[in-house]
Structures are given as structure tokens and as C-alpha cells.
Amino acid sequence: MAGHAHDHDHSAKSFGRAFAIGVTLNFGFVVIEAVFGFIANSMTLIADAGHNLSDVLGLLVAWGAASMARRAPTPRFTFGLKKAPILAALFNSLVLLIGVGAIAAEAIRRLLHPAPADGLTVSTVAAIGLVVNGSTALLFARGARRDVNIRGAFLHMAADAAVSLAVVVAGLIIFWTGRQWVDPAMSLAVAFVILWSSIGLLKESVWMSLAGVPLGIEVDEVEAALVSMDGVIGIHDLHVWPLSTSETALTAHLVLPDGSIDELIASAQRLLHDRFHIGHCTLQVERSHLGDSRC
């Protein structure tokens, strides 16, 4: 006998407007940053423009994947396309790693062959980026906790805001001291920040792609919580995996001697939802005298 619980979290649905605003703001800033980067002969601005362009692509991919995840199940995809945002996060992390290599290579070249940059222009444009990236990050802040796809968008924008602040400082240093090496040095700092955030996103997206237990959930704690329920004397075949970036699935066999099966299943479903945020679970109940029957 099995019980099912479905508590689908469609939190990404409300972020369509946030994605639209974020894409528009960031693409506009990419154009501004690239133009003034060439005018000011600033590798930092040009490098950051390239990175921001990849962020626009990342936002578009994340937006499309979030939309795909809301499509209804079909006979061929019985869970729908809920894993699309996981693949989007994996794609974005790989694109960012490629961008890091390009930025670092050009920054090293400029360190070896320095060229003058207009520090005041660099700072002014970067300040605009600080406002754009910071505002975009705030659009995704409320969904960053529960959805790795939304969290990826938030972290990228937040990191870019921090990088823009660093570029503002670099531009002011160049303006005040004339030390041109600060510009490519800051580009390397930009690359390091991007690399750091990309590795975390890559690890989590690969983990979820391989159906690893979602971060924040300990299987031992889930098992202990279910076994501690009145009427449950054992548990086996416990599996926990990400159904999507915001939904976690679970299957388990509960062993019990007697009692109300319906009431027990309902209690177990509430426990899993309230304590572990697992809203899609299948529980099979077995009588202890039937032995270990697995299917």
C-alpha cells in the first residue's frame, strides 16, 4: 500500500517580470560599458562588459528553463520538464568558466603590455553597473533560498555588484595616482570572483543532475524522524533526490505492526513537508509479519 503527497512549489512562476527587467537592464548596461570601455581604453570595463553579456545569456537561459519547468506532464515526460532549470544552472556555470579564462588571459597581456586608461570614466561607468547589478540582484533575493535556479541568478548579480564596486575603486586609484597596472590587476580580481561563484554553481548543478540528495537534507535525519513516529518500527529503501531546483522527492518503505495506515501516512507527509521541505513523497507501508518485501 502506498501514499502520495504532491506539494509543487511554483515559486519561479512569479519571477517572469524579474527576469524581463533584469535582462533589459543588464543588456543596456553591456552596451554602455563596452562603448565607454573602448573610449577609456579600459580592459576592466571591456572584460566586465563581456562578463555581463554572459549574465544576460544566463538570465535568458534561466528564464526559459523556469518556464519549461512549469509545463504540464506528458506521456513521455511524466514529471514534466522540472529538471530543465538544473540543466540551465549547469550550462551557465560552464559558460562562466570559459569567460574567466578569456578575461584572465587578456588581463595578463595588459599587465605585460600596459596601456593608459581614463580612471574617471572607468569609475563612472562602473558606478552605473553597481546600481544596475545591485537592483537586479534584489529582484531575485526573495527566491534565492529555495530555488537553485533563482539563487544562481541572484548570486551572479550580487557578485557583479561587488565587482562593480571594486572597479569604481580601481578607477579612482588610477585617476588619483596614475598607476595603470591597477586596471588589469582588478580584471584578474574580477576573474577570481567569477571563478569562485562559478565553481559553487557548477558543483551544485552537477550534484543535482546526478540526483544527489539536495543540500540541507541529511538522509540519516529523515530516516530517524520517520522511525521515531508512533507505529513505525522500521524503514528501508529510502531515496531522496531533487525533482527540480525547488522540489524534493522521496520514496520509502515503512514497516509497522498495526494501526491506522491512512493516519500514519498523513502524519509522515506532514513531517516531511514541515521539517525537511519534501513535498513530493511516495510511502509504501508494510506489516512486520510479512517480512522484507521489496518492489
Structural commentary:
It is a single chain. The model is unreliable at 7-12 (pLDDT under 50). The protein has a four-stranded mixed beta sheet, with helices on one face. The longest helix is centred in the middle third of the chain and has 30 residues, at 148-177. Helices cover 63% and strands 11% of the residues. The chain has eight helices and four strands; from the N terminus they run E-H-H-H-H-H-H-H-E-E-H-E. It has two domains: 10-209, Alpha-lytic protease prodomain-like (Up-down Bundle); 219-290, Cation efflux protein, cytoplasmic domain (Alpha-Beta Plaits), CATH 3.30.70. Strand 2 and strand 3 (248-256) form a beta hairpin. It has helices at 16-40, 43-69, 84-112, 119-140, 148-177, 182-209, 219-227, 261-276, and strands spanning 2-6, 234-242, 248-256, 280-287. It is α+β, with helices and mostly antiparallel strands.
Write the topology of this structure.
Elements: E1 2-6, H1 16-40, H2 43-69, H3 84-112, H4 119-140, H5 148-177, H6 182-209, H7 219-227, E2 234-242, E3 248-256, H8 261-276, E4 280-287
Parallel strand pairs: 3-4
Antiparallel strand pairs: 1-4, 2-3
Helix pairs in contact: 1-2, 1-4, 2-3, 2-5, 2-6, 3-6, 4-5, 5-6
